[in-house]
Amino acid sequence: METQKFSYDNSIVRAFLYATIVFGVVGFLLGLTAALMLFYPELPEFFLGTDDSTIKSLAAGNIQGLINSQGAFGFGRIRMLHTSAVIFAFVGNSVFAGAYYATQRLLKARMFSDTVSWLHFWTWQIMIVAVVITFFMGINTSKEYAEHEWPIDILITVSWVLFGVNLFGTIAKRRVRHLYVAIWFFIGTWIAVAMLHIFNNLAVPLTMWKSYSAYAGVKDALVQWWYGHNAVAFFLTTPVLG
């Protein structure tokens, strides 16, 4: 019997793992900042300074004069950044690190394409940076866990498709006949998250950074929380079980 030699791609696993560590710390600090602002809403003013009129307003007990707290460093934007950092940056990168590590070993095959692996990695990181910039600028859809505007939603879709190409391509060239249960979890995650993301983020673009949901009223709310609760199940739970 001929002996086949191959090597696993551990570099992509390390890249996602390092990103997980970095964004884990960032997500924690953003969450801590948001929590402190509930108790001390003047926190942005304390760090960024303020003017005389704001000082007088604060002395009179009027927190509506908190210029920085209502702007880029306000609670609303920091809180959005925290949830996106934890869900997409921290958990997302950790899921990909685990999937790339486990898939290769359970299928006894290197990932389908190193190029696709790195395209997947960098599109995901670029998406995260775009989220940070747009949220600080006040550009968002105001939909819980899906605040990203339509160009970023498209980038998420592209990155997710790249992940799918690599996953299913590796399954196709596997060196074992059976599929271990973890692989089925990864397959289920990919299909469910793709469906949730696409249907929840259907929108009508007005400008480059402004759009309106394709749904209205109660329908929009129902679709949004169909996405919200199932995203917890299929993005934060299923791949971790795998």
UniProtKB/TrEMBL annotation:
Domain of life: Bacteria
InterPro entries with a match to the protein in the record: Cyt_c_oxase-like_su1_sf (IPR036927), Cyt_C_Oxase_1 (IPR000883)
One Gene Ontology biological process: aerobic respiration
SUPFAM superfamilies: Cytochrome c oxidase subunit I-like (SSF81442)
Cellular component terms per the entry's GO annotation: membrane
Gene3D superfamilies reported in the protein's UniProt record: Cytochrome c oxidase-like, subunit I domain
Pfam families the UniProt entry points to: COX1
Annotated GO MF terms: cytochrome-c oxidase activity; heme binding
UniProt keywords, alphabetically: Membrane, Transmembrane, Transmembrane helix
TM region positions: 12-40, 85-103, 115-138, 150-172, 179-199
Protein name listed in UniProt: Cytochrome C oxidase Cbb3
Species per Swiss-Prot/TrEMBL record: Bergeyella porcorum
